[in-house]
């Protein structure tokens, strides 16, 4: 009965959403200047949340066990704070899906779009969530600038809460000192595995596409240095190229224009067996399109997901009944690449969006913590099980290596298996 009611609720929500009704206090998105493509992306993210949440509720693991731990008796609640749909679409929809699954046992809020300049607002939103004494778990994803201060303020009165932060935007050691568990994409680890991936894809040259602002971030620097070190060890030529900052003059459009213009020139200079990796989301679509046109290689996006860059670059229209069906999306990417004469084995990504996986795994971990199934607030073994169910088998955990050579015991880096798009 729970599963049936959940799906009925989600169908009603999806239909209302498709008609343009808003589920935020900021007003109807169709009246806020969003174009057709943005509306499609929002619907896609909503349906993805529906499908993944339904799988968690009713599906099973390979061993036949339930795909998610059900909430037991009691009144405890799990709070989730995410970005709005304009800044954190996938996380917002994942939280929405969790609320539809568990009803009033999940409470949600959003931090402001300009979070870095409105940290007081973020702090107030967290205070509003924890004012409910039944809230025993708080999931903060993405843990933007201001998350550390908000969690520390919350601990002053609610140290009993389990605080989980996903996709942190602040210094790793600082956010780890505030939260009980921190989850992040293994940005540094990509520096160790990506070169092996591109070599298997036939690359002879590796081009790192970025700009100074991104190259000032600690994890980005360390990933870059590992990529360069491993490329040279494996006999690949490593090249740095700089493009306009999408937050600079001209915005993302100027960055995308530069990439579109430069891709054929880069491939002419370095050859078709060149793998391109870019550190910014706005670069992915023109990079993929350029690789399709020139025969180059794109081994991974900055935020790996089949939905990131591929649909826009390939002109994929996903029917509503298939929205959120990742196998369908992957097959469509394979088909479109083949239709355009591109070799699908020269394009790769990870199978599930990171933010959605973190929220789903975080909710399950929170339930298992409240049901007494963890060894304290930071239980790596249980966390790994929850991540495997959120992302599928193949995810791995490691600890963030601090600057002094030690590891942060509660800051986890998540790595997933690659998928490629050659025709089966």
Overall mean pLDDT: 84
Overall 3D shape: globular
Q: Give the total of beta strands.
A: 12
Task: Write down the Rg.
Answer: 21 Å
CATH class of the largest domain: Alpha Beta
Percent range for β-strand residues: 15-25%
Q: What's the N-to-C terminus distance?
A: 38 Å
Verbal overview:
By secondary structure, the chain is of the alpha/beta class. It folds into two domains: 2-184 and 354-411, 3-Layer(aba) Sandwich (Rossmann fold), CATH 3.40.50.11400; 187-349, Rossmann fold. Helices cover 46% and strands 15% of the residues. The protein contains 14 helices and twelve strands. It has helices at residues 2-18, 36-58, 89-102, 119-130, 147-155, 172-178, 187-200, 218-233, 251-270, 281-294, 310-314, 326-339, 354-370, 380-391; strands spanning 77-82, 106-110, 135-141, 162-166, 181-185, 205-210, 237-242, 274-278, 348-349, 396-401, 407-415, 419-420. The strands form three sheets. The chain has a seven-stranded mixed sheet with strand order 2-1-3-4-5-11-10, with helices on both faces. The two termini are 38 Å apart.
